[in-house]
């Protein structure tokens, strides 16, 4: 099979070796510049690399038509959330399996998602879309403080923050409205979504849709950094919830999936479990990022990379038999006010941990570290697997504490 992977990022990188392992011919479409550079260890595995501005929809469509005439394309798989609409529109044009092109924008833009769910009677936070500064005061009065301000077209908590008053809201609004591009250099809308602040623990729900059937693989516990931001500093697969809570979450997410017309592919639904039940923050019809897919594999033996490829190819899905469940977690190194570092202590001890899956620094020594208010400020991570939830959670906490970043000189 000839598989096109459109601009793989983060977990999308691993689709390349997985597709090769499954004996598919892999064609990667990438801009290969700026924030859209694929690590060489993954890119070199592709059978063919086509460099194109992946933020130019028409250029990508024209290239896909050309490749289909030359080779025959069996699937176009989005390598990141931002490319879900375009990938599925191309699949529709080529007659391949894919999401309904009439609903894909609801899965990309948070304001459209909120409206579609509200119109279907699915519970969502109070919200208002703000497209002009003059609308800000009335929108805030409707939603009420505290509230959350977020861009409609970003991911990874980028420029998302809680506001307790008008001064904080105006600062949050200004940052979003002045954005020219998002983190992958797409033109930003600049519109701001104000949402009711939800009290309660945060989880993500990972699974896969196959027609009328929804497979649930994990309710993942989120470890969050300090407010007013919502930086995810870790994840644990799976959260220790009782059967009734799991049932309620699955029922609610099923309503979300049905209301949004999701008919295929993996999903990553982020929710808050309030005192009156689960409420959606957002859902992406793509692979979870932040190493979650790998945690699911190590804890449960479920290969989401393979399942995504099979889903887009229209292949029968092969799910593993339920075996003894383990727990797995990841912790990201986030250090407020650290601008750069020259040395790091504690890595050798961390790499000697029992059950260690991976440990890596993603921002190297001497490089400027972005603000610790989104995923971009995470310096590195480590991931572990074990058999006891409490012990694993403590390992994540202690492992993070033992890593010391040192700045020897000031620049």
From TrEMBL:
Keywords: ATP-binding, Ligase, Nucleotide-binding. SUPFAM superfamilies: Glutathione synthetase ATP-binding domain-like. The keyword Ligase applies. SMART domains: GARS_A. Residues 114-313 form the ATP-grasp domain. Transmembrane segments: none annotated. InterPro entries: ATP-dep_AA_Ligase, ATP-grasp, LAL_C2. This is Biotin carboxylase. The lineage of its organism: Bacteria, Bacillati, Bacillota, Bacilli, Bacillales.
